[in-house]
Amino acid sequence: MDPSFAFAHYALAEAYDRKGRYDEALAEHDKAIALVGGEPSQGWLAMAGLLKDTYQKSGGTNYWQTRLEFTRKLYNEHAVTAKAVAEIYAILGDKGQALGWLEKSYQEHDRFLVFLKVQSEFDNLRADPRFEALLHKVFASKNSELRKVSP
After folding, report:
1. In a domain, 31, yes or no
2. Which of 14, 40, 52, 108 is the most exposed place for a label (fewest CB within 10 A)?
3. Where are the alpha helices (DSSP H) in 20-149?
4. In angstroms, rounded to a whole number, what is the distance separating the alpha carbons of residues 70 and 76?
């Protein structure tokens, strides 16, 4: 409906990525970046795995390591949350670091943790009891907050 709505291009890029349409995924991602002036907001940067398959399939072996360094720098500057760093560690297969950064994200009350159950970046952590415990903490605290508000 609005071709200048950048987030729609991000979502379309992710859909193309999941369907294996990598060239189209990159094109939509580039459109989204251009529409926001080259600097995505904190929320969009938190979506580290957006083109996970695209970059892995297209031979971007150094992409995730470079993205990790950049995201850690942004975290130190308070521009992204710890969850953004955790996503990249999970994609790289470093479960210990990913879980450590997720715990840090929980301690910092990161609102983006509500997406933990559905983000494919964390698929390799789902069987880990530490990840299950974190899910329980995140969603138990969300439910208790709702009970406080509800009559």
Report:
1. no
2. 108
3. 22-35, 42-45, 52-57, 63-76, 82-92, 95-107, 129-149
4. 10
**How many independent structural domains does the chain possess?**
1
The tokens describing 61, both together, are 């072996």
Helices and strands (H and E) in the chain: how many:
8, 0
Q: What is residue 59's predicted lDDT score, i.e. its pLDDT?
A: 56
The per-residue pLDDT of the chain, averaged, comes to 79
- From the list 102, 15, 101, the residue with the least C-alpha distance to 51 is 15
| Cα gap 36→52, rounded to integer Å | 21
- Is-contact 107 98, C-beta < 8 A? no
Q: Any idea what DSSP says for residue 53? A: H
Q: Is residue 80 part of a domain?
A: yes
SS (H, E, C) 63-89: HHHHHHHHHHHHHHCCCCCHHHHHHHH
Question: Quick one: DSSP state of residue 38?
Answer: T
pLDDT, tens only, 31-53? 876 776 645 454 454 454 566 66
Tokens representing 10 are 């991000």
- Decide: 45 and 80 in contact? Cβ < 8 Å: yes
Q: Is 10 within a domain?
A: no
